[in-house]
Write a structure and sequence with these properties.
Layout lengths: L9 H6 L3 E7 L2 E6 L4 H10 L5 E9 L7 E9 L4 E9 L5 E3 L8 H12 L2 E3 L30
Parallel strand pairs: 2-5, 6-7
Antiparallel strand pairs: 1-2, 3-4, 4-5
């Protein structure tokens, strides 16, 4: 849901047809986007609103809630001194969202880290391999259902 007081915001107006919710807290705008529209939303904010810098991509595990994962994109418009947070909720099966590397090259390693630690797959990623854990590691250690005791080798 988008509150009425945010409908005049230029970012919200540009993403209104893709957004599922928006909120302004602590002077920070967060817009939730349908997962199938995340790349289009990123293209719009980069091209039309000059958010030229992707500062991070990360995940949040909401287990046992469904959709289980939130993929969070932090963006920055340097000249305007603005920050923006986009979120997309991804189900646990299939645990996949389109890669942002076609819009922001800097998404490459951030997406690899999110894949490695949470197990979220990024469709179309040029090299979706582990970046933090060893290649033979089983599981994804930032998932809430990951075992924290016992031997895992």
């Amino acid at each position: 849901m988008i509150p009425e007081n945010l409908l005049d915001n230029p970012v919200v107006a540009a993403l209104k047809d893709l957004a599922t919710a928006a909120k302004l807290e602590f002077d920070e705008l967060t817009v939730e986007i349908a997962p199938g529209s995340i790349v289009e939303a990123l293209r719009r904010v980069k091209k039309d609103l000059q958010f030229e810098r992707l500062t991070s991509v990360t995940g949040v595990d909401r287990y046992p809630a469904e959709p289980r994962f939130e993929i969070v994109y932090h963006l920055q418009a340097i000249a305007k001194k603005q920050r923006l947070r986009l979120k997309a909720r991804v189900a646990s099966d299939p645990c996949e969202i389109e890669s942002a590397t076609s819009v922001y090259r800097s998404a490459n390693w951030y997406e690899r880290e999110t894949f490695d630690l949470f197990g979220v797959r990024f469709a179309g990623h040029p090299d979706l391999t582990r970046i933090v854990m060893p290649d033979d590691w089983e599981g994804h250690p930032l998932r809430k259902d990951y075992p924290v005791t016992g031997t895992r080798y």
